[in-house]
């Protein structure tokens, strides 16, 4: 058994799909319905192939804060990625829980789903 995809609840499937496809460079696994779409990494040929998938589901109920689950997005250049995501429609979260040595910043997508952008520095093997 393995995790198939992480599901985010949304109110506007088109807006959320546009945001996450642009943010992650993912593709629709198949044609979205009015209330469901699964996004896969580019080139993922089959649902069981490696690579984390993200599903979006219209549920009709509001987000809860604080959320009980969120995504961590790893970034070599955190500041640049945050600016790019803000340009796509993400919003900064006013949160006072950061420790002094925090290597993450909390944002939320167009639907209010919170996620962190974590500074990793260069990925192993980058530039090889």
UniProtKB/TrEMBL annotation:
Residues 2-120 form the VOC domain. InterPro entries: Glyas_Bleomycin-R_OHBP_Dase (IPR029068), Glyoxalase_6 (IPR041581), VOC_core (IPR037523). This is VOC family protein. Gene3D superfamilies: 2,3-Dihydroxybiphenyl 1,2-Dioxygenase, domain 1. Transmembrane segments: none annotated. It comes from Microbacterium yannicii.
């Amino acid at each position: 058994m393995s995790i198939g995809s992480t599901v985010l609840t949304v109110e506007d499937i088109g807006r959320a799909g546009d945001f996450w496809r642009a943010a992650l460079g993912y593709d629709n696994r198949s044609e979205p319905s009015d209330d469901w779409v699964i996004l896969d990494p580019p080139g993922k040929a089959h649902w069981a192939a490696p690579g984390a998938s993200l599903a979006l589901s219209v549920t009709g109920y509001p987000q809860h804060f604080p959320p009980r689950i969120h995504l961590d997005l790893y970034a070599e250049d955190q500041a640049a990625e945050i600016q790019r995501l803000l340009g796509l429609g993400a919003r900064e979260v006013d949160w006072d829980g950061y420790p002094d040595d925090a290597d993450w910043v909390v944002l939320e997508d167009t639907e209010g789903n919170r996620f962190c952008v974590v500074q990793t520095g260069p990925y192993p093997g980058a530039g090889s």
